[in-house]
Structure formats: C-alpha cells, structure tokens
Amino acid sequence: EEIWKKFGPYSCTLNIDEVDDVDKAWEEIAERIDETIENVKTKIQPVKEMYIILDHTRTILITISDGALPSNVGGGGNVRNILRRVFSIMKKNNWWDKFGMEGFLQIFEQHKLDLEGIYGKFPEYKSFGQIIQVEYDRWQFSDDESVKKLEKIIKQRKGKLTLDDWIVCMQSHGIPADKISEIVKTPIPQNLYYEIALRQERTAKATEVVLYNTIHLPETDNLYYKDHTMLEFDAKITEVFKNVTKKNRPNIIVLDRSAVYPTSGGQQHDTASLTIEGCAGEYKVIDAVKVGKCVLHILDRDLEGYTEMFKGKKVHVSIDLDRRRQLQAHHTGTHIVFASCRDVLGPHIWQAGAKKTTEQAHLDITHYKSLSKQEERDIENKANRIINDCTRINKSLMDKAEAERQYGFHLYQGGVVPGNELRVVNIEGIDTEACCGTHCDSTAEVGWIKLVKSQRISDGIVRLYYVAYERAIDVMNGEM
Ligand SMILES: [Zn+2]
Q1: 195 and 95, same structural domain?
Q2: What's the 124 CA to ligand 1 centre distance in angstroms?
Q3: For the residues 363-369, what does the mean pLDDT come to?
C-alpha cells in the first residue's frame, strides 16, 4: 500500500500514447519515489493486470453478445487475441488455480450486472460459457505448439521478425502480440495494427468486372416484388447486347419490366420461355443476371438480323414453374435451417453465406466447432417441425428505420442492404430477415428438409448442406 501511495501521482506518466520509451518512464518513476524499479514493477504489475482482465473481459462480453466469435478470420481474430491475452495473464499469475473456469465466467456475470443499469437486462445467451470453454481448451492445447512455431521462426530470422512474421504468428498461430513481443524481446511494431486493418480491407473488396454498360437504360421494373405469384407477363425490349463471352453473338436482351429472378443473393436464376412479336418460334431464357439496375436475359439462340430492329418490340414471357418452386423451397428452407441452428446451437449463430441452386443448398453459420451427429439431427428435426407447422411467410417493403426498430440488426443476415427501403421476409414467430430472393407463402411449401452433411469450412464457420422439396425425396430415395 505504501508503494501505491507513492506511485499513484506518477501513474499518469505511463500513458503509452504520450511517452516514447515506457521503460524509461518506469525508471524515472522508481527514481522519484526512491524505490528499485523491480520493486515497483512487482508490486504494481498484478493490479495493472487485474485491470487488463476486467477491461478485456468486458470487451469480450460485448463483442460476443453482438455476434462475434473468436477465430482466425477477420474481426474474429481480435476477439481471439483479446481473450488469449486474458488467458495468458491469468496463467502467469496462477489465477486459474485460484478461480477456475467457473470463477472466470463469474467475471462476465458481474459485468452484466454492472452494465444493466445502462443497457438494460442482457438477453439470455445459452452458448456463451461454451464459447469461452472451447476457446480456452484450444488455447491450452495450441499454446505450447504455437510458441514452438514462433521460436522456430525467430531462429530462422536470426532473432528479427518481419512485419509479415508478426501477422502470421498472430493470425495463423493465434499468439497475442504482447506474447510475441515478450518472446522475441522486441516491442510491438508501431504500424502492426494499421497493417492488419489495411490487409483486411484489401481482401474484403474484390472489384467486379462490368461487361455490359446499362447506365443509359431505365431500371427494369421488378414485377416479382409487386406480385410474387406472377409467372407470365408482357414486356418490351429496351436493349440488345452482344454476348462478349460467346463470340459477340446477339443473345442478351433487357426488358422494361420482368418477373424473371436474376442470380443474386446466392440464389440461382429462373429460366423461362419467351416469344417476340413478329418472330417465329420460341426462345428460352437460359440465364438471367442483374447488371446495375437492369436484368439481362440470356437467350438460348441469337436474335437474327439487325439488332437495333428489336428495340421496342413486345415480348411474352412464361417462367418455368418447376424450377422456380425448387429454388424457392431451397431458399425458404435456408431461412428455416438458419432459425433451427439458432434454436439448437445458440444466439451466436449468424449467417456467413448461403447458396441455393436447383440441386441443393448450403448455409454457412458462425459456430466455434464442428457439429455433432446429435446436433445435426436436432437441427433437421427442428426444421421439419417448422415446415409441418405450416407457418405463414409474409413479405413486405418496409421503411428501413422502422424495420430496424421492430426487428433489430438480426435483419441483416445476408449483409447490410443499401437504400431507405427494405424487403422484409417474416416467417411468423420464427425468423425475420431483409431478403430479396423468391420465397414460399407457407413453410409447408418447402415440403421436407434433408440435411446432407455439415462441415467446418474455416475457423469459426460451419457449412450445412441440405436439400428440400422434390430434391429431398430424390436424395432420400437414393439412400434407400
Ligand atoms: Zn430469403
């Protein structure tokens, strides 16, 4: 206590943002209060470390409650590094022996009580303790191994790590920066976190190659959103493009209005039959893509003659119902599987990606370990119960602010949507998401969901493959 009284007034001089050399600052304090530097450090250090733990555990509580998970990928890496720093500090001070996991988890409960006054009651989070436990086990197991890897790199580099080495050690071997610093006996490079952020930004942005310029065209009027049961419609051709991937053959048309669903949001496109006024025979729409505000309809054969002549011509389009139904079932099934995962596994489940083709669908979820056979079965059962309940599915355009107020950020499972209006898909009492795909009107139309397999595809991400509707029957028949 004596030393604390003397140290207190000078503690502010240790602000890392203000001093160039922290070690020197420590030295100066020790001199001023007439103590040895070792004595000051050994007395002060545990309290400092206790504050680090209190600060870091609060950060962990908030980030995990907000949907982040410790992993090697993206922001998950920060959660892992912060958590592992806490683990190492606990280990260094022999605090694990004293408190154990149960005591450690109590810290989070204390934070909750403390924060309730500001944010209100924390919602129940059934998987929180599990997430911490799994990460702790992983850290304990990999700690020695990672240190060995780091020591090997240090030897190779003759004691001097490059910035790349630091980043590899942190992101691939999960060693916190201050631990690397301790082992390699050099301070954390000043530009380390900036460089990490920069690299993340670079990988997040992939540039899209635009092959067709649609800027001069009016937006394709989306008939699907006006009436999702519309399978036949009339429209006018507004533009003809030469297919640059097919030797410039003229087989792409843009319409002023269309109910054909273009490939987007991880869902495959519709196909359709199409007739053009004054032209013999039927065309097939074999692909549809969205470019800018327009839907490009790719035809099975070329438009013959002078292409300018087709502009303004009337067309009649009839969408293939069987394909639409199968895609719609896989898409709606994805919402159902997602809701089931959240129900079975816990609120840390967020959608990390999805793909729906006629063959099958998959959903990527944020989860900290592989699924057990039992969990797979539970998810499948839950999904089929939702289907059998014949729950209504409502689709509506909502004001963005109003939708966020009503449903929260859980809306954005497929990523944040630009604009002031959202298309909200609500499976009553089960799941609400901002989503633009094709959906059934009742969960019953999905027919059946058969989980094919699940796979841990990267750290913190599990992929579930499943089939629905008629494809589920195909797969189940094949298994018999
Ligand atoms: Zn959807």
Answers
A1: yes
A2: 26
A3: 94
For residue 358, the CA-to-ligand 1 centroid distance in Å is: 15
| Count of the separate structural domains present in the chain | 3
Q: What is the CA radius of gyration of the chain?
A: 29
More reliable by pLDDT, 286 or 352: 286
Alpha carbon of 52 to ligand 1 centroid (Å): 42
Mean pLDDT of 337-353: 94
Compute, in angstroms, the gap from residue 269 CA to the centroid of ligand 1: 14
Q: For residues 477 and 480, give the distance between their C-alpha atoms in angstroms, rounded to a whole number.
A: 5
Residue 315 DSSP label: E
Kindly state whether residues 230 and 377 are assigned to the same domain: no
Of the candidates 234, 442, 202, 190, the residue with the CA atom closest to the CA atom of residue 329:
442
Q: Residue 256 C-alpha to ligand 1 middle, in angstroms? A: 25
Do residues 47 and 156 both lie within one domain?
yes
- Alpha helix positions (H), 245-348: 321-345
Q: pLDDT over 70 for what percent of the chain?
A: 96
How far is the centre of ligand 1, averaged over its atoms, from the C-alpha of 331 (Å)? 6
Q: Cα separation of 37 and 40, whole Å?
A: 5
Q: How remote is the CA of residue 406 from the centroid of ligand 1, in Å?
A: 18
327, 249, 262: which is closest to 288 by C-alpha?
A: 262
How far is residue 146's CA from residue 432's CA, in Å, rounded to a whole number? Answer: 42
CA of 224 to the centre of ligand 1 (A): 14
Strands 421-427 and 393-399: antiparallel
- Do both 156 and 101 map to the same domain? yes
CA of 324 from ligand 1 middle (Å) equals 14
Burial class (CB in 10 A: 0-12, 13-18, 19+), 283: buried
Q: Is the pLDDT of residue 206 over 70?
A: no
